[in-house]
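Support reply, case 0932

Customer input (verbatim):
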Amino acid sequence: MTACAIEGGSAGPAATAESEPEPGPAPGPGPEDRPVAGPGPRPGAESAAANRAEPRTAREPSPGPGPGLSAPVSTEPGPGPAAAPEERPAPRYRTAAPPSPAGATLTADGAYAARLTAAPGPPGERSWYPERWTLDGPEPYVVPLPLDQPEEPDSEVAPLADGRVLIRRRVAGRQMFSLLYPTGPGTGELLLGTVDHPEMTLLPPSPDGRCVYALAAGERGSSLWLVAGGARGTEEVARVAGHCSGGTWLDREGRMLALDRRAPGGGPVKAVAVNLGRWGEVTPLLQIAPESDDRLLLADADSGLLLIRSDAPGHERLGWGVLGSCLPVRFPECLRLPDAVATPFAVQPGQMLMPESCAVALRIDGAQGSWVGVWRPTGRRLHQFAAPLGWLPGAGCWSREGVLRLPYANAATSCGVAMLEAPEDVEPSCVNGRAESGEDGTEPSAALGAPVVCRPVPLGQAPLHGAVRPD
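Our regenerated output:
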């Protein structure tokens, strides 16, 4: 998994890249002289059986998946799908109100979401508890999962494909992991284990829907832990030299994980691939220039599309490449926003071997707040839309048909999904015979204007193709 040069260079991980010139008279969006290398074969053992740790409570564990779940992973007994959305009152605790945790985490297929939220109450007397969102049924609904004690605001949650929610808590300098699930009027909890480490971060749920991994990062070394879905509770599965961050899945089996690593002795950040099917084997994944910071933000297993942030052009830019391809990384001018930062969060699935046609959803953060961008590599134009009121920033998923689903909650709707169909990119004008691009021949710029309003659509009134979730 090494990079190879295709323009005036030789193959190998030490291939160099030229910095991208600023937009000028020369055509093209910028430097495109380093390819992205892809992983090789991905053999390895299948994921272990579901965790069988004893529950912390006296109740028998019952995952209680919500309606719309077509293939539950858990084999434990539990209630069948509910006929109507399950609404439970939010708890009221008396604790100080810290800053609100940001966003939510979705399963790989977009069926469930989980987040920490604040119980209603006067300022300074609110506390936090987890909740699970069911998004793949006829109507979205939310299930609160409070326990006897409120959660700390630095806890993290992640949903599983069977409807349970993993929670990471920091207790006395250690990390504690449990599974939460609705059981009658209350919340059941299954203790998975603890890790003796002061700081850990949950990675995005595995594409298999059963496993969740956590990263314990140190300055000279980082460790990867399987904290849900293993046969022996929490277990360390890989060690990587250097300080690691990020976390992006490269396949649908949950074996190939990309991390952004800084070497133990310092230096630039480079994306590496960790092969969990080969006992955590680490290989280089991305290098644009020897001294550039090259981070992988998002990857699509179907098309191989990679979204990258790198300072190889001289300053940080958002670019794209193709996994395993000899084509260079490209830095589109339309993704270079003067007064905002764009971060990709979802890629349209099902576009086999067609990375240029994938619709990409981006969260755009600026002085006006956060809104949504939609872009395709082949279109070379960034479409901007106002997010629905109460959007969980950076949360959403695409259907195969190109419909973006954005979960939101506000005073009028406790759990809603806004549907946004990916716009078609305008072809070059046939009237004047000129392409709609910048005056200097580069891609269209992305001057910030008033974004188009993205209106929520009740799922009962939405078109059928918009309700199909990706497999």
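We compared this against your earlier run and they match. Two observations from our side: The CA atoms of residues 98 and 212 lie 26 Å apart. The radius of gyration is 23 Å. Please reopen the case if you see a mismatch on your end.
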